[in-house]
Amino acid sequence: MAVYTDISEVELEALLAAYDAGSLLSYKGIAEGSENSNYLLHTTKAAFILTLYERRVDKADLPFFLGLMEHLAEHGVSCPLPVRRRDGEVISEIAERPAALITFLEGMWLRRPAPQHCRQVGRAIAGLHLAAQGFALSRPNALALDGWRDLWRKAAPRADEVEPGLSEEVEADLATLGRAWPGDLPTGIIHADLFPDNVFFLGGEVSGIIDFYFACNDLLAYDVATCLNAWCFEKDGSYNLTKGTALLAGYQEIRPLEPAEIEALPLLARGSALRFMLTRLYDWLTIPDGALVNKRDPMEYVRRLRFHRQIRSSSEYGIGIT
Ligand SMILES: Nc1ncnc2c1ncn2[C@@H]1O[C@H](COP(=O)(O)OP(=O)(O)O)[C@@H](O)[C@H]1O
Ligand SMILES: N[C@@H](CCOP(=O)(O)O)C(=O)O
């Protein structure tokens, strides 16, 4: 559950008074998600999502995230739109938190995506990469190599409590990735967290993408690698080649990967697995048991890391197989 901050109807009515979004009929906290507090609101005009920014979101980055959603929506990507207040602003404050009202997106996320869904996700992420070109703002990836090292410094002393020997594994990965991380691949704006819970489907088709709060400028192929990690592994930790093949084919239908991007996939997938392992490990060790937050298992991503370490060629992910 992710509702970190409780709000009252009195606070909400005061907030809505600044918008032209109707008056409050009902609201409830949303159990899903892990980073921010989200409320579903029904007003006399429509349904909305109110997000209170909590954990890793820096208020200074909100114009980037909210502006990006506007830019993407204008360029054909189905995603929520921030609602402007009567004074033209999109960022409000409620319960001492920065907050934004965004439009409600119909659809549901898939607990058990199939290869045809992975193909669509590949297409959607490539479409997002192309649509984001020309967005005026930029934001460096706070969870790139330096960010991983910061997280690791904080988590390292207790890492072996989660898995004996984990410290040694992560030190070796950080050293390898630090030496070999590619610097010369195509860059642009990436979603950076395109997990199944951030892609909505309606009637078997992608109906929209949500949760742009890790979006940043980075290697485009790194986003593809994150999708391989998030969509193409089974519960038992095995890689599903059919899903990987479908996702990569979907991406290539819209934006063909360059040979250097294809070659870098094992390294990028390993880096992406390390990134999600580290945020999960940090949360695992710091969020108290019993807190109303979904704590995600870092071991799931330790297993992904081990898989990527033994990959010898990108063809093992399904690239080029049709
Ligand atoms: N625009 C939206 N339309 C419909 N539901 C949404 C929207 N934004 C968020 N949600 C709901 O809130 C949940 C958590 O949102 P998310 O942005 O993933 O939160 P977090 O940033 O905390 O992970 C989603 O799984 C979805 O159920
Ligand atoms: N996708 C991340 C956690 C953050 O996910 P969110 O969609 O709830 O913001 C992970 O799986 O570690």
TrEMBL record:
Entry-linked SUPFAM superfamilies: Protein kinase-like (PK-like)
Alphabetic keyword roster: Amino-acid biosynthesis, ATP-binding, Kinase, Nucleotide-binding, Threonine biosynthesis, Transferase
Superkingdom field: Bacteria
Catalytic activity: L-homoserine + ATP = O-phospho-L-homoserine + ADP + H(+)
Domain Aminoglycoside phosphotransferase, residue spans: 27-257
InterPro entries for this protein: Aminoglycoside_PTrfase, Homoserine_kinase_II, Kinase-like_dom_sf, Pseudomonas-type_ThrB
Molecular functions (GO terms): ATP binding; homoserine kinase activity
Record EC number: 2.7.1.39
The keyword Nucleotide-binding is annotated on this UniProt entry: yes
Listed GO biological process terms: threonine biosynthetic process
Pathway(s) annotated for this protein in UniProt: Amino-acid biosynthesis; L-threonine biosynthesis; L-threonine from L-aspartate: step 4/5
Family note: Belongs to the pseudomonas-type ThrB family.
Name used for this protein in its record: Homoserine kinase
Organism: Nitratireductor pacificus pht-3B
